[in-house]
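Technical appendix A lists one of the benchmark inputs used to test multi-chain prediction within the project. The record comprises two sequence entries:
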Amino acid sequence: MSKFRKKKSNELPPVSTASLPDIVFMLLFFFMVVTVLRDDNLLVQNKLPKADQVEKLKKDRSVYIYAGKPSARYQDKFGTEAKIQIGDKYTDITNIKFALTEMRQKLLPELQDKVMVALKVDEDTNTGMVTDIKQQLRELNMLKLIYITTPGNELNN
Amino acid sequence: MARRATPEVNAGSMADIAFLLLIFFLVTTTIEKDKGIARQLPPIEEIVDPPKIKEKNLFIVNVNRDDQLLVEEKLMELKDLRQAAITFLDNGGAPSGSPEYCNYCKGPRSPESSDNPEKAVISVQNDRLTSYKMYIAVQNELVAAYNFLRDRESERLYGWKFTEMTKELDEGKIKGEAAKEALQEKLETIQKLFPMKLSEAEPKKSGQ
């Protein structure tokens, strides 16, 4: 025994790794909390209107449509007229049906019938554009929609 | 190879630091949840025989291109819209004894206004140039009017608020299938008392 002890005293003591699991768990938890599953890259201004009589959106069965003026950095190229964005690119009103059908196919098969369209429209947009979108949705028979809002109320802002 | 023995770093507090950071991030990070006003669009189909709606059962809200409200042909501020809609829905104008009589309505029972909540229809007419902000604000007020009345009825019948229970059901706070179904049934009863009949006319072109 004494032979071993003597040898050990000469060596560098190992760095304690007892806290390694803690660090790893901390990182793991941090990323679990912060990570949001890939959201669309916004190409339009998106200041949502306020409302307080709201329902929750079921994310697994929804497709998003964004609309509004192009963001500041795209205005040189696309002007300031309000545009529609589906997925990662601008979509023309005539092209909405195709783009939405494509988006719907990405959902789980059993949820495709229950699809809900989430409209994220900038508050300065004209209602006419929203009406056009709604007309397209009716033609596509995707009748459930939800106007995404921020908490608050127009009356006391 | 004789090295000087370096003292071991005390790692006892490492876990504390890690937890502190973890808790800090847990508290500061918020996960964004989208909320909004849900709607069901009418399907496209040829309406063969459009139901006739008496004028007194129709509550017309008109929003023009300058975001001004015209309610029943009178100019109105947004803040008064909710109360006006509640008064209209809750009117119960059908005379007592008739099959359309509304026994839970607490409104003024004016024969000039809606017969009962079942028949009352709110029609919103927008201009194409109405701002989306105003559009949502109007929708919000009208939904609020329905929610107010539904809350009142559910409190009278069951002792809880309609909106609160709907929320709890959505968030999965109600445990057990039987309890869920019982609640769902009660919610539907309330919905039948004040069915949401919001109609949206095709918007007019600006200036017409």
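The longest helix of chain B spans residues 132-157. Chain B has a mean pLDDT of 82. Comparable benchmark entries are summarised in Table A2.
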